[in-house]
Amino acid sequence: MTRARIFFTGVGGQGTLTATTLLARTALDAGLPVTSGEIHGMAQRGGVVESTLLVGGYKSAIIAPGEADVILGFELLETLRALPMLKRGGFVVGNSEALQPVGVCLGRECYPPLEAVLETAKGFAAQVVLVPCISLAEQAGTAKAANTVLLGAAAACGALPFSVADLTRSIEKYLKPKLVDVNLKALALGAEAAKAGQAA
C-alpha cells in the first residue's frame, strides 16, 4: 500500500485547501485510505494556511515535526517555516516566487532571498524542487491556478503517490467545467518545469 504524509503550507487566497481536497479525492479514487486535516484553515487573504493529508491508512490527521514525507509550499517564506516538519530524506516542492507579507511591504521586516531558502531546504530534504508557480499559472491563463502548477511539479518529480495522469483525471472530474482547461494547462506547465530542470 502506498503511504505518504503530506504537509501543505501557504497563505490565504492561494488555493492550499483546494489542492488538499483535490489530492484527497485522487487518493480515494485510487482506492487508498486517506485522512486530512486543517491546522490553520480558511485564513483571511494573506494569513497562514496549513493542512495535512495522510495517505495509506494513518488514523490521525496530525503530522508532528520531523514526520512529513513531503512539504508542498505554496509560498516561499511559509515553505522555509515548515521545514522542521519534514523527515530527513523527504521531499520539498515549493513556489519559488514570494508573496511578501505586510511587514516586508512596509519595510519593517526582511524577506529571505530565494538562495537562502533553497540552501536551508537542502539541509532538510533529499530533493528540493522550487518552480515559479505564479508566473507559470499566468501563462496558463490565471494566477489562481498556481496551486495546480505546484501539484503538477510535485507529481512529475515523484514526490506524490499519484501521477500527472491521475491528477489530470481528478481535475476533469472534480473542478467546475469552466476551470478545467486552465488548470490542465497549469498542471502540465508545472510538470514540465520540474522535469526540465527549470526548478531553482
From TrEMBL:
Listed InterPro entries: IorB_Oxidoreductase (IPR052198), Pyrv/ketoisovalerate_OxRed_cat (IPR019752), Pyrv_flavodox_OxRed_cen (IPR002869)
Name the coiled-coil region(s): none
The UniProt entry, under Gene3D superfamilies, shows: Pyruvate-ferredoxin oxidoreductase, PFOR, domain III (3.40.920.10)
Keyword field contains Oxidoreductase: yes
Q: Tell me the Pfam families matching this sequence.
A: POR
Q: Which domain of life is it from?
A: Bacteria
Picking any one GO molecular function of the record gives: oxidoreductase activity, acting on the aldehyde or oxo group of donors
Tell me the ranges covered by the Pyruvate/ketoisovalerate oxidoreductase catalytic domain, including all copies.
Answer: 12-192
Instruction: Supply the alphabetized keyword list.
Output: Oxidoreductase
UniProt protein name: Indolepyruvate oxidoreductase subunit IorB
From which source organism is this entry? Answer: Solidesulfovibrio magneticus (strain ATCC 700980 / DSM 13731 / RS-1)
Classification from the root reads:
Bacteria, Pseudomonadati, Thermodesulfobacteriota, Desulfovibrionia, Desulfovibrionales
